[in-house]
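Sample pair:
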Amino acid sequence: GSRDEGASVAGAAHFLEHLLFKSTPTRTAVDIAQAVDAVGGELNAFTAKEHTCYYAHVLDSDLELAVDLVADVVLNGCCEHQDVELERDVVLEEIAMRDDDPEDALGDMFLTALFGEHPIGRPVIGSVQSVSAMTRAQLHSFHVRRYTPERMVVAVAGNVDHDDVVVLVREHFGSRLIRGRQPLPPRKGTGRIAGRPRLTVANRDVERTHICLGVPTPGRHWRHRWALTVLQTVLGGGLSSLLFQEVRESRGLAYSVYSSLDMFADSGALSVYAACLPERFGDVVRVTTDVLESVTRDGITDAQCRIAKGSLRGGLVLGLEDSSSRMNRIGRSELDYGQHRSIDRTLRQLDEVTVDEVNAVARRLLSKPYGVAVIGPDDSKRSLRRQLCRLVK
């Protein structure tokens, strides 16, 4: 993922994800596309902070083709000079598209405000400067060093037989296996990521002002992670959430308001996003911080905890109906924890969360200085800027 990159090659994982689909020693980009189209399937990929996922979605009768295509792209994808230059332009266009979407751009700005120069604080997509300067040799080196069997997890979900899948994976991935080499243990990270949350503001020619504010959290191995997830859901995870009710339903200050939780190996981020008309921005900030301070001071109720747990439980179980979600879940479980964590285990951990535990988490985390990112048409109002600056102190 992008946190495995050095600053000089920021965006390499995402750039490489684009590049590997261009050709392999036995297939052109057209060959790859036609093979997928011929069976009505999908072959795609995405890059995140800590991993890159290449996936195929096909009928069960086309499983062997899917394994063959994914293995060929991941293991044998080429980094030809002409393809590097072509995809460089595509990635730069993608960066421009990101910058045209305030909500998308704000997410990257917020993590930078929270984590600074740490790789988690850098955008997955990289920057115009890093992508423009990246060389074929750097991309090839990243591929050779990072795309090794001991770093990979192969996950398959659907109407398949496990033993048949093992045979196919050995056949198509086995050429890279090295006898005696063991899988790498799950990523533990380097402990809590140092850095002081700060304020970052960008002027854009947009109709609404967008804000994202939040606090750093412990990572996914924290024993209170499910209590933190319940807290996030109570704050802004649904139509009955505190922020949705206070900011939108009761006061009509913003159409869009919600909370998010990103969890990495050694740290995380609990954040709130809202978008509103510029003249309502001060009120949105005030009401949002009032909600956070109220939860920190007074806690949540038993009823709010129960509703949030029910919402999370339903979402987890309903996700099992989709084969892509199941694939992602079991793959991430192996990658993040080195084992398959059953849905029953997860539901038990969720059921064990108490309102007292959630309130203890709120007191510990929500009283910290906020990281704040703002995109809007005008940041010249000194009083408003002073109000924002107080959040990060």
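The chain has a mean pLDDT of 92.
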